[in-house]
Amino acid sequence: MTTTTTPDKQGIGTRFLSLARTDAHVTRLVVILLALLVMFAAIRPGNFANSYTWISMAVSFPEFGLMALGVMVCMVTGGIDLSVVGIANLSSIIAAMVMLALAPGGSGTAIGAAIAIALVVGALAGILNGILVAVVKIPAILATLGTLELFIGISIVLTAGSPISGLPPEYSALMAARLGGVLPMQFVVFLVAVALVALIMGRTTFGTKIYMLGTNATSAKFSGLNSVSLLIRTYLFSGILSAMAGLVMLANYNSAKADYGVVYTLLTVLIVVLGGVNPNGGSGRLIGVVLAIVILQILSSGLNLFPEISNFYRDLIWGGVLLLVIATSEITARNPFKRKQKEVS
Fold it and tell me: Membrane-crossing residues (predicted)?
């Protein structure tokens, strides 16, 4: 008797809806996202629904979105990376210096070399973080907070506190290109990073070990897991993602400076926690983090449509949304009726 397997014909949308039905937190994020879209489209239909607003969002959020992905992979291990902004700025500064040193007038080779060197800088910065956390045994929050200041200091020394501008026009043209005439290059870079994180976290032994370490570090150690090597590679990966964010910022600002994106440090942590990643490690879905990135960008862009609302209220609103989602998740998790249902099943 022969058996045949039927290929999975579910589309991306069907799989997404299936995930939303089985993950309560993802469902809540989807509801929040849809509510924001409907609200802003109804209140400011002419401004919010036009293509310029959406393209502007697609160009803007990859900056902090890429950093948030780096924070996510570190938080799943039970750690955190607060140095992402420092790595991004240092990488972009060195990339700008390489471009101007090799070919001030512009050169494809110089731009390629600058991008490669920026990624190497991000990787080296991540390795330093990993060594401090895994080898020296400094708590991740303290180690990366210290390296954040270190990277900012190096950036200030390299630039004397001034922005580096006058980049080759080829780099601006490269990042201003649109895939298929629609998708901004910044958004494409973000999609590539999301696909890479999804592949690593969901399809590789490396990703499985990251979740194992975050779930129970002691058990992982006794099972033969090399936590030192794993943590160093995890922070290295976060450093590369931060360097990619730096290259996006370099294109968006057309310059590099030590203090660009200073608000992103806490914003990325907010995104990752809002996305459902456990701050203690061991759990968290990439789809939740991506939804949180989009939600905060839509909320930010929507608030910009109301000039009467001061920017000072933005942090208040973001914090309120975060507390609401976390409180709802905790209440749901402690619901005795649902817990009893799980025990019976």
Answer: 25-43, 55-75, 82-103, 109-133, 140-161, 181-202, 230-250, 262-279, 286-306, 312-333
